[in-house]
Predict the 3D structure of the following.
Amino acid sequence: MKKLLFSWCALLFCSCGDNVSEALDDLFDSRPTAQEMCVSLGNNWVNNQCKTNAELAQETCISKGNLWTNNQCKTPEITERLITPGKTIKDSITENSSHTTYQLILLKAGKLSINITTDGTSSALPNYGAEIQILNGNNVKIKGTNGGFILPHNEIMDLYAGVYYIEIIGRYGAGNTGIYSIRVDYFNEAVADNNTFSTAQLLVPGLTVSSNITLQDSIDLYKYVLTTAGRLTVNVSNGSGLSYVYVRWYNANGNRIKNETSYYNSAYGEYMDLEAGTYYIGIEKYSSSYTGTYNMRGDFTAAENNEFEANETRATAQLLTYGQNVKGFISYQDSTDMYRYILTETGRLTVNVSNGSGLSYVYVRWYDVNGNRIKNETSYYNSAYRGYMDLEAGTYYIGIEKYSSSYTGTYNLTIQ
């Protein structure tokens, strides 16, 4: 029987060989392809590759500029903040916040320098960890990197006055998060013949001007117009060959209000708390043997005081109500701020004064309705003053008076 079966099979293959081969070919050709196998398992066939739903979702997420975190696609948190020339901001790129936009307002055309650095620690942003894009006020890109930058990174460009945006964007990839610092500086060249008040060069806060003192040059004058009260800070750094200069401060009438000398081969940095108005800064030759280049920048911080000026006398004293908080400002021109409070019945009057920016001491004067001083105290260094008096019903005045010409700045006053 076995021999008969074997003979039959042999005869079959011998007589039908071509058909059997075709049948076997058909059998193998009917096997599912890799694509069919991929799809049958519930996956996705993309670019000749089998992708799971999770893998496809991740790639799609990242391709749209989003973040894939904990198997979820998240839109990166985009933060925007104002960046001021000459000030350094420390920031970071994280998994959840990989895109930060800085707004920069240039009031005058000049040369802009953008520096991005790290401190070199393990938490610092690695090389090629981010992109930088510079856009104009219409959000149109005017300059930027492509493929990341090596730290430290510097961009320099000449820009017109206007609003600009600087974007720091994290790049996808493990380890491309971390801490960085960004600083912008704003330069311009001094104009010629700015040696008188009428020809003084008008500057805006945050702009650095570069100039030189020559044998023929004795002084360069610069003008700042402050539209509100606040602190004007002037920084002068000596450049090549220039060891000393005089730094003169003048009011709108050309009267000198501050006179100082830059120190040998080091930067000068001083401020004045000023009312709104026009002021001049003079960079003056120290002597005929001191010539060379320098850089000067003025920065301005508004006082944001809410007192009613002018309130220097009892006749113009600002009326306060119970619990009202006033942010006051003692400036170079200001000697006293006077406040009036009306007690409708006998009771305790309490005065609280806390020192604000730069103001270490003030005198706190108490007066009756006739202007007679009934209490005279001093706020303590960098700490709050709190004093009280038990008084009959009537009108009383509280004077916040300058301690000395070197003590200026803001304060907070509350009467209870």
Q: What stands out?
A: The chain has three domains: 78-185, 190-302, 318-415. Helices lie at 2-15, 17-29, 34-40, 53-63. The CA atoms of residues 207 and 322 lie 44 Å apart. The chain has four helices and 31 strands.
